[in-house]
Design goal:
With about 130 residues, the chain is of the alpha/beta class. The protein has four helices and three strands, in the order H-E-H-E-H-E-H.
Length: about 130
């Protein structure tokens, strides 16, 4: 039967589905093994990102995926122009919210905004020195 119900009963399809299920279970085991997997959340210090980070961490906890670090990226500090000063105030406010929510349970790493796009191993090593 072409396109009929019989195609769904084909043994090859059942075998492929069974193999897929086995693979998904292995991935789940790896994600839930704290010795093999740690999820690091990355956020920016703004409302929507804080909200989505909260949803992410709740989902990870629900699924027993280890996450103990949050990187807050692109932080504007002590800007000189009016827009930068305002952005700095907003970012400071949301950094305080990240601290209130996660300081006890997560390591929070703050990365300032940079005048270059960070790409490549050497650039990442420089961030590691911050």
């Amino acid at each position: 039967l072409l396109g009929g119900f019989g195609a769904f009963l084909d043994e090859e399809i059942f075998n492929k589905t069974e193999n897929l299920l086995i693979g998904v279970k292995k991935v789940k085991e790896i994600f839930q093994n704290n010795e093999l997997t740690t999820f690091i959340a990355v956020a920016i210090p703004e409302f929507l990102s804080l909200y989505e980070t909260e949803r992410l961490i709740q989902g990870l906890e629900k699924n027993k995926v280890h996450c103990d670090t949050i990187i807050v990226n692109q932080i504007v500090k002590n800007g000189e122009c009016n827009i930068c000063k305002r952005k700095s105030d907003i970012h400071q406010s949301f950094l305080e919210q990240f601290d209130i929510l996660y300081k006890e349970s997560h390591r929070i790493i703050e990365i300032p905004v940079m005048d270059i796009e960070v790409r490549g191993i050497d650039a990442y090593k420089n961030i590691g020195d911050l």
